[in-house]
């Protein structure tokens, strides 16, 4: 015959099971790790795929700040989507979409693009002003770019672009080899707030840069690129070992 204590203990255990107490060791939904393609949380997607280059909360790092309102004002959703999905040729921006060799689904790319705009765009920041367009309207003129550079850029980057105490060299072989023409243009227009680089409105105390002046400065910078950056000999010159 069961003792009163045993009956009470058994009854208490049965009560716990009836109210949904899970057996020891059985994982809950929170314990089950999502597969990479199942992640739909923007913060996690951004941290895993973007923060390393574009910085925490989109504030910039080795690459431009995505939380820059001026950048979001000139770059359309399609532009950001395309850059995220297939990367940017001639730069360090890789492709992230599965269809282009990356790891993200189309849905995850859309989450990143949509949430960047929702969280970080500030239309009032450029309200009443017309930033130069994201893409150039016509080819730039390097000679005219020399004059525009002197007005808007030389105070920080030096008369020849080799840098000053205020700004780094922008004619460095490695820098120009790793940055695309579009990235140069985007940086001039949107600036790099994380590095203290002003946007197109504040490169000169007198006036903002005109769209064609931005294009011409980019053309001047592109003209500074060397065909064999970082190499002490021409590409068609054979290497000769010296003892």
Notes on the structure:
By secondary structure, this protein is mostly helical. It has two domains: 36-126, Cytochrome Bc1 Complex, Chain D, domain 2 (Orthogonal Bundle), CATH 1.10.760; 142-223, Cytochrome Bc1 Complex, Chain D, domain 2 (Orthogonal Bundle), CATH 1.10.760.10. The protein is built from eleven helices and no strands. The chain has helices at residues 4-18, 42-49, 51-54, 69-74, 77-86, 106-120, 142-152, 154-157, 173-178, 181-190, 211-223. The longest helix is centred in the N-terminal third of the chain and has 15 residues, at 4-18.
Q: What CATH first level of the largest domain would be assigned?
A: Mainly Alpha
Instruction: Give the total of beta strands.
Output: 0
Estimated structural class? mainly alpha
Name the average pLDDT: 86
The CATH homologous superfamily name of the largest domain equals Cytochrome c-like domain
Structure characteristics:
mainly alpha, Cytochrome Bc1 Complex, Chain D, domain 2, 2 domains, 243 residues, 11 helices
Entry summary:
With 243 residues, the protein is mainly alpha-helical. It has helices at 4-18, 42-49, 51-54, 69-74, 77-86, 106-120, 142-152, 154-157, 173-178, 181-190, 211-223.
Helix and strand layout, with pairings?
Layout: H1 4-18, H2 42-49, H3 51-54, H4 69-74, H5 77-86, H6 106-120, H7 142-152, H8 154-157, H9 173-178, H10 181-190, H11 211-223
Helix pairs in contact: 5-6, 7-11, 10-11
């Amino acid at each position: 015959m069961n003792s009163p204590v045993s009956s009470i203990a058994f009854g208490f255990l049965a009560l716990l099971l009836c109210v949904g107490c899970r057996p020891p060791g059985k994982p809950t939904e929170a314990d089950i790790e999502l597969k990479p393609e199942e992640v739909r949380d923007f913060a996690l997607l951004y941290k895993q795929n973007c923060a390393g280059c574009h910085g925490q909360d989109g504030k910039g790092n080795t690459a431009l700040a995505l939380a820059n309102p001026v950048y979001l004002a000139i770059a359309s959703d399609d532009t950001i989507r395309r850059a995220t999905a297939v990367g940017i040729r001639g730069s360090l921006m890789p492709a992230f979409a599965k269809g282009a060799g990356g790891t993200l689904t189309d849905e995850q790319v859309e989450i990143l693009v949509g949430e960047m705009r929702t969280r970080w765009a500030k239309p009032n920041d450029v309200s009443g002003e017309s930033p130069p367009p994201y893409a150039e309207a016509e080819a730039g003129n390097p000679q005219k770019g020399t004059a525009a550079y002197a007005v808007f850029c030389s105070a920080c980057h030096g008369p020849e672009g080799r840098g000053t105490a205020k700004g780094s060299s922008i004619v460095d072989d490695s820098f120009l080899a790793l940055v695309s023409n579009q990235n140069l243009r985007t940086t001039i227009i949107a600036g790099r707030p994380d590095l203290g680089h002003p946007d197109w409105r504040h490169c000169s105390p007198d006036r903002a840069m005109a769209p064609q002046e931005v294009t011409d400065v980019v053309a001047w910078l592109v003209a500074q690129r060397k065909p064999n950056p970082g190499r002490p000999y021409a590409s068609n010159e054979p290497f000769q070992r010296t003892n």
